Amino acid sequence: MQESAGILGYKKADKGIMFFLVHPGGPFFAKKDLGFWTIPKGLIEKDEDPLQAAIREFAEEVGFTPEGNFMPLGSVKQKGGKMVHAFALAFEFDSSQLSSNTFTIEWPPRSGKMASFAEVDRAEWFDLATAQEKINPAQADFLLRLLELEKNS
C-alpha cells in the first residue's frame, strides 16, 4: 500500500479558521475543481519519518519549508487505497508566491512529445464550507480533526 504524508496549513481570520489547500497541476486536473484540491503531500520514502516526508513534500510543492508546532491529524485512506498521514501547522503564506516543482510526461498522449507541468498549479486559503467542497473527499476529515484540536486547545 502506498503511503503519503502532508501538511494542512491553517490560520485564524475574522470569519474563522482558513485552510491552505493546493490544486494538482498537469493536464489531467486542468478542468477539475470540486473534490480535487488536496493538502500538500507526497509519498513517504522507505524508512522515512512521515513528518519529515510531509515537510519535504510541502517545500517541493509550495516553495517554502514550513516550521513550527506540527500537530498530528492521524490518517485517512483515499478511494484508490493510498494511506495519507497529515499534520496541521499554523502559518501565513501569500498563495501568489507558490513555487512548485515540475514533472514531465508525454503530452498529448502517444504524441512522442514530452511536456513539463507544475506538480501544483494553484494554492489558496479557504473557509471551512469552501474547503469541504474543494478538498478530496477522503481528506475532508482532516479539516474537522483540526477544528476539534483548535477547539480543545
From TrEMBL:
<dbReference type="Pfam" id="PF00293">
    <property type="entry name" value="NUDIX"/>
</dbReference>
<dbReference type="InterPro" id="IPR015797">
    <property type="entry name" value="NUDIX_hydrolase-like_dom_sf"/>
</dbReference>
<dbReference type="InterPro" id="IPR051325">
    <property type="entry name" value="Nudix_hydrolase_domain"/>
</dbReference>
<feature type="domain" description="Nudix hydrolase">
    <location>
        <begin position="1"/>
        <end position="148"/>
    </location>
</feature>
<keyword id="KW-0378">Hydrolase</keyword>
<dbReference type="InterPro" id="IPR020084">
    <property type="entry name" value="NUDIX_hydrolase_CS"/>
</dbReference>
<dbReference type="InterPro" id="IPR000086">
    <property type="entry name" value="NUDIX_hydrolase_dom"/>
</dbReference>
<protein>
    <submittedName>
        <fullName>NUDIX domain-containing protein</fullName>
    </submittedName>
</protein>
